[in-house]
């Protein structure tokens, strides 16, 4: 597996090998032992699958806080997304900074986003499917959202505010300034 470190501590881009022939390809997308070798040891307890019908759908920025903080291993299985993680660990050198990658069915890459980060994505085409593994179960009481286009974050989304297709819930998300003690590093 190809492992690329990104500017945010703990955030990784993983690309499993593909074995191709005239029939198509085979790829091992999850192997607990392989992930443990690179430090991802939390068990995955929930898988999620989303379909976005149109280009420009923005989902996020979301996280779960303790005691149900989630790490996510995200991949795009149809189409392509621009996937982003934002560090919300108070005390981190990269607090408030973001990193983004393009995930697609074609490149087969996966984005590891540990607990302590907001996550969101924008679809780059129609009928895009995203699947991700979570290290904790969904819990409404622990769920938090930050406005996807908060100016203080300066995220360079591949869609303008007026073109983005955003849920009413995400439109009403909190400003980044509300992230004070969601995750505190020792």
TrEMBL record:
This is dTDP-4-dehydrorhamnose 3,5-epimerase. It catalyses: dTDP-4-dehydro-6-deoxy-alpha-D-glucose = dTDP-4-dehydro-beta-L-rhamnose. Keywords: Isomerase. Catalyzes the epimerization of the C3' and C5'positions of dTDP-6-deoxy-D-xylo-4-hexulose, forming dTDP-6-deoxy-L-lyxo-4-hexulose. One of its GO terms (molecular function) is dTDP-4-dehydrorhamnose 3,5-epimerase activity. It is an enzyme of class 5 (isomerase). The gene is rfbC. The active site is at residues 62, 132. Coiled coil: none annotated. Belongs to the dTDP-4-dehydrorhamnose 3,5-epimerase family. The record marks 138 as: Participates in a stacking interaction with the thymidine ring of dTDP-4-oxo-6-deoxyglucose. NCBIfam families: rmlC. Signal peptide: none annotated. InterPro entries: RmlC-like, RmlC-like_jellyroll, RmlC_Cupin_sf.
């Amino acid at each position: 597996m190809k492992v690329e470190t990104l500017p945010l501590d703990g955030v990784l881009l993983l690309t499993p090998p593909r074995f191709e022939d005239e029939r198509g390809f085979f790829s091992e997308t999850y192997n607990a032992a392989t992930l443990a070798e690179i430090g991802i040891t939390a068990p995955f307890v929930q898988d999620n699958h989303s379909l976005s019908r149109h280009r420009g759908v923005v989902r996020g920025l979301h996280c779960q806080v303790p005691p149900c903080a989630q790490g996510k291993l995200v991949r795009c299985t149809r189409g392509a997304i621009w996937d982003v993680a934002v560090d919300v660990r108070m005390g981190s050198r990269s607090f408030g900074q973001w990193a983004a990658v393009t995930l697609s069915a074609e490149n087969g890459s996966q984005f590891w986003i540990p607990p302590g980060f907001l996550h969101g994505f924008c679809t780059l085409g129609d009928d895009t499917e995203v699947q991700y593994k979570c290290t904790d179960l969904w819990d409404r009481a622990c769920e938090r959202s930050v406005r996807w286009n908060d100016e203080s974050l300066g995220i360079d989304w591949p869609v303008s505010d007026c073109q983005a297709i955003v849920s009413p819930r995400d439109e009403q998300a909190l400003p980044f300034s509300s992230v004070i003690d969601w995750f505190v590093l020792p």
